[in-house]
Amino acid sequence: MKLTEVFAEFELGWPRMHYAFAVLCIFVLVYKFTLLLAKRRETLRHLEVFSGPPGHWLFGHVLEFKQDGTEMDKVVRWGEEYSYVFPLWFGPFVSIINIQHPDYSKTILTSSGVRNVLVVCLISFLTHTSGNGLLVSEGQKWFRHRRLLTPGFHYDVLKPYVKLMSESAQTMLDKWESYASTNEPFELFNHVSLMTLDSIMKCAFSCYSNCQTEGGTNAYIKAVYELSYLINFRLRVFPYHSDLLFHLSPHGFRYRKARQVAHSHTEEVIRKRKEALKEEKELGQIQAKRHLDFLDILLFARDENQQGLSDEDVRAEVDTFMFEGHDTTASGLSFILYCLACNPEHQKICRKEIIEALDGKETMEWDDLSKIPYTTMCIKEALRLYPPVPGIARRTTKPVTFFDGKTVPAGQ
């Protein structure tokens, strides 16, 4: 057969291949869509015993969330109307069951048929940002890292942190003095957030960043805030849940740029610390010279096989504490101060109690923390009313039946 005849036959067969491929793709799409419809019908059958807010047949309850900062208020209102539990739909195929009644929560939190998970897309976003740290890891890796990190929270390690946190708080209060003299209002959360970031950098890195006074110029601090904003923004914009769409977007470009700055900073700090610790054989030798920080604990951590954490694991754990630690702490502190301001009679009692505990000293010390029981109660009550993390996520691995006889299926 001549070469021209071969090409001619190939040209004739090429449209047929295209046609066959198109038919195959359509078949796969129809098959997948049929499975999704069957799953939706089965889920609706299981969830019909739970009353909840009416949703759109296609969008579910997505349109109810206007992205204007009132999303949590709407969930709270639904919780008042449907006091035990209510289902929510995000599109036609994704549903969650929102639980708030204590007896329902007890069943979920004590059942062996429930898996501890975060929302899948949030896990993906956080993993891309801070690595596979303790917050998002699971299984044996979680148990190993949790065991290796436990010494970092021993009293002897934590005690020196009180002084570091006091220094950061004093810097913030010095800034507030200027506002007090002018009687001008200001956004408190921004200041508290920089203060908690300053504290964590000191405790995790032994790094004095001066971020409270130079927050706008420090490249790492700017990257941390940029990443925090972009993760939250991506979570709320549904098309950005696609890695491809987010990667191609301007926000994706900003995200990658900020992530590179943050990771480079952490890697450089780890490299320098490992270089400085080459001569040290154990943590006790370091503690005799200075306080231990979180990075020291991570670099010296060893399991039963004398295996430590890799550089990537160390970076992931440090980044996890930086990104998931400072913002939640700042939120909790801000709402505590808000609650005290709204209840001046309780604020007055706390102030009197703290002044007595200080007994003429400038700052609190570790042993003073047990001398402020009323203030501690106010802190816990504020955290109950305004929790920095208002929800947790679980997925059922087998059917779970609640105290009232209602059941949710596996995979919910």
Automatic annotation (TrEMBL):
The keyword Transmembrane applies. Signal peptide: none annotated. Keywords: Heme, Iron, Membrane, Metal-binding, Monooxygenase, Oxidoreductase, Transmembrane, Transmembrane helix. One of its GO terms (molecular function) is aromatase activity. Gene3D superfamilies: Cytochrome P450. InterPro entries: Cyt_P450, Cyt_P450_E_grp-II, Cyt_P450_sf, Cytochrome_P450_Monoox. The chain crosses the membrane at residues 20-38, 82-101, 113-137. Its cofactor is heme. It holds the Pfam family p450. It catalyses: testosterone + 3 reduced [NADPH--hemoprotein reductase] + 3 O2 = 17beta-estradiol + formate + 3 oxidized [NADPH--hemoprotein reductase] + 4 H2O + 4 H(+); androst-4-ene-3,17-dione + 3 reduced [NADPH--hemoprotein reductase] + 3 O2 = estrone + formate + 3 oxidized [NADPH--hemoprotein reductase] + 4 H2O + 4 H(+). Catalyzes the formation of aromatic C18 estrogens from C19 androgens. Belongs to the cytochrome P450 family. PANTHER family: CYTOCHROME P450 FAMILY 4, CYTOCHROME P450, FAMILY 4, SUBFAMILY B, POLYPEPTIDE 7. This is Cytochrome P450, family 4, subfamily T, polypeptide 8. It comes from Amphilophus citrinellus.
